[in-house]
Amino acid sequence: MVRAVLPAALVRGLPEDRDAERCDPEELREKLRRHLVELHVASWYDATLRKPCHSGRAERRAGGPACPIRHNSQMRQSRLFGRTLRDAPADAQTPGHQLMLRAAIARPLASGLYTWLPLGFRVAKKVEQIIREEMDRIGCQEIEMPVLTPAEYWRETGRWDLLEPITFRTRDHNGREFMLSYTHEELVTHHARNEILSYRQLPVMVYHFQSKGRDEARPRAGLLRAREFVMKDAYSFDADQAGLERSYALQYDAYTRIFRRLGLDAVSVESDTGAMGGDVAHEFQVLIDAGEDSILICESCDYRANQERAERRLPDAPAATDVPPAEEVATPSVTSIEALGTFFDAPANAFLKTLLLRAGDEVVAVILPGDREASHAKLRKLLGVMELTFAGDADFVRAGGVAGYVGPRGLHARVVVDTSVERRGYIAGANKRDIHVKNILPGRDFPDAERVDVHDVVAGDACPRDGGRLVLRRGVEVGNIFAFGTYYSAKMAGATFLAEDGTRKPFVGGSYGIGIGRSVQTIIETHHDDKGIVWPFQVAPYEVHVVALPVNDESVCRTAETLVAALEGNGIEVLYDDREDSAGVKFADADLIGIPFRVTVSRRSLQNQAIELKSRAGSELELVPSDIAAERITDVVRRARSAAP
Question: What is the pTM (predicted TM-score) of this model?
């Protein structure tokens, strides 16, 4: 009975069973098909009911679904949640940001907050699956920790206060404080101290996908810098430094495979550890103009470093031995390095500039050459703060400095001298209004004991390894790995294990992150043309985009829906454009969305018993006989799957 295998909502308008018994079988099937076309479920008919039995009634295909709603069943573009845009919003800042919005990949909800639309959600899940496969490959175990995290664990390491400027916090009804997870080192270390008792359980690596919150002051470029986003975080626990190095190498190699499979040409660079702790870290950077990170790359060796971490080879400069005594010089209203250069007719590196900063209750004076800028990242690490605080009026009075004329001599403050300051005579502020002092010599006229690299490295500087020339590139950080050692376990009570020698030792750890949304947008930034996105096959939202022209032509509609059903029956992911729009609109949207293969079923092609097959990345059309179209397209897609990294 036909009616017996259809849901009740679909049988209205069909002949009663007793009438159906008297119908010609072919006529009955055609009536059924027309009825289901009107209800937009014809592909279900094609996949489940099209085989006739001896009685002339339709029968269910072996293993076929019991209802027309099934996972990844025919996705009609007319019902797709999310519409394409002809023009990008004015505030879209990069090509990838513009295409992400135009192609209905994601939509902004507020500054730095985005909603995945169905197409983008499918891409994000494919990115996650590639990451999951590579994490599983190296023995990393998947877990899931909460996004809302109790304050007490952050307080154990001191990061509750350290991260305050850039994190979201709340209280429950009992006044208990929580942080929207910035990352999960404290939480996973808490679990480790309860679950790992002995060295026999080590090494261990775990990972999860979870939302993060960062109270970014200036979210920018769509998903490249957002305030809420999903990251894959992995964490390793080892018994010693040698074990950590092995885990770090495993993660490094896994990241190399992940980004290759995502279609991203990512390079590893040395990076600052920032708020994560430890001294060793690498970022995986995709070098594109849309990036906000500055990367220094040696032209003659493999040295690569984020500018926040970069070092340079300093020129040999022997200490001066014949510097005259310091001498004050009147410099009325001359306060900038540029103005001083004009006044003294001297280059910028003839001067010293002094920055007064606050670190807790301490005033710190940072001394640099006049031709160098301070690295905020290096200063933050030196001072142990998340944000730099420049000295206020009271701090100047306390330190004995005068704004505009501050210098290193006679300051009542901690004095930090940059490593690029040479031991020769300079001109500097005299800590008196309208006065500078020349012939000031480090070590003789001001303390020179605390020397630290706190200056920015710039293009043209010498590589610290081989002295080669450094060039500057922009990059997007898509992943990072940190070897933080005992940074967390040493601070959290009980974060130890019973070692082989019978003593208790702290866990030696590392953390490893990949941003999902940032990876998706970076794929768009690096895979597009003037028409739209060109997705790498392995992360595309669908594999085939079937376009029916015109959809109100019964022959076109029947052929397209039969083809879609056959492709889906072969396990092919299909987006079916059944909209009543012009060919120009449909082709423009297909190019914009960027699905790897476009299949066009048109009245013109059917006159030649063929359909059109075109690769999004190519320009040539292939006419495929309609009677073998499903087999040919399936073969093309399967070949693309096999070729995908």
Answer: 0.83
